[in-house]
Amino acid sequence: MRIASSLFPLAASAAAFALIGCDSGGGSGGTSGFRVISCSLGCTSRGTCSQNQVALNQEIKLRFNDQVDPGSVNKFSFSVIDASTGQEPTAIYAVTDSEVLFRPQITFNSNGNPVFGLSSGRDYLLNVYSSGSSSTGELIRSRSGKANSLALSCRITASQGVIDPVPGQPSVQAFLQQDPAAAPGTLDPLSGAEGVSVGSNVVLTFDDLMNPATLVNPVTGTSNFLQLAVDLDGNLQTTADQREVPSRFSIALNQVDLTTLVRIDPTPLLPGPGSDPNNPRLMVVKFLNGIRDLAGNTLANPDPLTFITEVQPGQSFPIVEDFDANTQEDVERTSGEWNKNGNGYLAQGPGGGSGLHGELRPTAAGVVVINTDNQSFPATGTLTGIEETVTNGVFYFSSIDIPRDVTVRFTGSRIVQIYCANANIRGTLSVAGENAPLHFPKNDPCPLSTSFPWISNDTGRGGSGGLGGPGGGNGGSGGDDPRPIAASPQGMPANPGSTARLAPEHLDGEPGQGIGGTGGVSNGGGGGSNAFPVTQISSDFNVRLASVELQPSLLYSLQRAAGAGGASNASVGTPGVQELPFTNTSGVAGSIPPGLSNQVPRTSVGGAGGGGGGVHPYFSNRIASRFNNCKPAYPAGSRPTIAGNQVIEVWNTGCGGGGGGGTAILQAGRGIAISGSITAAGGLGGSAASFGSTVNGTEAGSGGGGGSGGNIRVEATSLNLSGVNRFIVSGGTGGRSSLNIHGGNGGAGYVHARANPAPDPSTVLTATTPITQSSVGTYTSAEWDNYSRAESRYFSASGAFFIFEYLDFEVEYAVAGPNYAGDPNDPNQVTYVTLNEQTTWSQFPNAPFNIVFRGAEEDPATPGVPRPGTETRWLPRPGLLNANQNLFKWAIVFNRQQLAAQNIVAVMKVTVRISPN
User: Fold this and answer.
1) Domain map (residue ranges) of the chain
2) Which of 6, 23, 481, 654 could covalently link to 460 via disulfide, CB atoms 3.0 to 4.6 Å apart?
3) 888 CB neighbour count, 10 Å cutoff
4) Each residue of 517-532: pLDDT tens digit?
């Protein structure tokens, strides 16, 4: 914006006006009588203006030869209108003795930016009427009633930017209004004041018209340039401890006096000076960079100003929760019965655990991995305030919320047992078995072309089996290459091309681990397929199989191992595929032990692993020149022959089996909602890398068996299932091969669901993939975890205080007497006992109940909500919180066994006392 120099400030002297000469020519009305004698636009005796370019906020002044009647000055006697639209700009008319002022008024848009009375680039018509020139009869008159005798008529253009009404840098003065009920003018100087009332407001006066956009947003009542803060250590040189006091800002511009007033009204009471009289807290008014007047000048005195509030002697205030309403209940993290039956007390709930390990609420998209054998949780979230490590697969979360784009994957050897108040699974909770990796089953020592590189790190090992999910069996590994060091049975040289070849561990495919990771085929594990041939390469199989040629005239598969068997759990897997008459017996499906088949629900262990495929030879017919590609050299006399044809001996190692699905037990004291999925699927059996390809067709390892599905058990007071695929316990698909020697599929797992009332069996079946064995039941006290919990929402005293000190707490609870009939509110039935910081009480987890506290700094923009990153860890008493934490909450954990042992039936009241100092 263009800034013009100030032309005529309000206090301009008479010498600043252009005097109108006394010539008698032109102009209506002549030079005698009551008339204009000078004006700020260089008016002439002809009634014109010598200056016609003006600023957007420029004042226009007229001086008369006698005192002016203020009542005669208005928009009709002194007219300024837009030459194009005829609209009148917003303006102020003022009269002082013989002077008349027209001042374009400044208004402001919703963001506080100034809107000037005159619009840039617009032409305006200025008329001051005289006798005979006014169509309305409205004339400026003297106090004696004489009418103006000299008419003015000018055309002006708003082209000169903005002038500074008060030249130079603006300055500010600060005051305190300590008694809001006192007269508006009752203000005390702010800087250095002591003993200031905590109910005071701050008033700032600027000696210029300021740009409101650099001070206050009048719509939101906020400011990015002014701040009222408390300095906790009383040292302005250290700013990390300063806290902004939530405040409401308002602004008023006095366009007559050319001043600006800003009022700061703290939302809470101001904090006290603290408990150290030698080092009191300071209240600070801060002027941040960017404050400007209308002309863009910066503040002349921007240094912070301080004052000290009064001491509040001996004052303490209780913040009480009496459970008469559910307003302060953190529903997502509470399984206890808050305001039970509307009777105003807190009782233990139907399980759900202690919340010891904090909450499980991932926010970043992706996969979160949690190990059941060794998983640590940081002190910032645990109930004890110290790092907690899980080694037994049992997890106590205060609440669970898994977003749609998040998978929480549990791994390890132990089944997963999860307890929480509420669980909302919108994404995926996984205890699935691991897929067996894609397998590269051979290393041809005599490739068709030197463009086929050697696999120099080929170990000759069969494919690895997938790991079982938590509590599930691992998949078996595939059969190994029999040629580690010595020549093969047909005389092929040792170590064909690989420098990493290992001695074989087994030629047959390994059976998968049984249900729960114990036993083998007899306990559900998929059977491994045998190596083929069992002893040596047989020359009897000399039939060329054109139907399975993968590269015509070059490749033969005369004998092969079958696919491995799938694992079993709630349903039986399938055996591996064999292609008669050229394969050995396929891997069998796992057997389900009779005792397990009758177990309902079967959630103490996970599923079983699929079997591994056996090793088998593959012969390649090479023309003589192709033998030159062999590494190392393949002497002609050592080349095996079948039906008179020289062939290359290639062993295809077997693929691994899929891991068995694990077991997940999820108990929520209050509710479980699943719109995503819980998966205990079995892992896929390993496939040969070349399956579906015609390039490396000799890679034809036998497929691994699929792992069985695992088991899922959910228990909650309320169970909300919507749609299908909420429980996935499908077995893994058997691995595939270039030949028809695929692995068998794993059997399905088991689902058990309990709620109160019991879930509809058809709903659970519909939600289960595949629709397989499942059962339902009622969630009763027999299933409840020993622990339940209640957690409050954050309590805020910011409506009354901004910063305070925590003193102590009390918990009143009811102990049943001999005549107890179920009403903790009846003093004839119970005795009321108070727990406080001085009470001797065993620590978690052995006490009947424990209470812990957490603090946070309130977000100034969102009352009652913590500022991100300011929450403390859980602490045993509120006195360990400091003045920074002006929000607090608590959590109570009930121990059902100890409550019963001590006849404690309810918590009646929780009180935390604070001091405003």
Assistant:
1) 3-163, 172-307, 317-327+787-915, 352-430, 438-658+683-709+735-748
2) 481
3) 24
4) 888 899 999 999 888 8
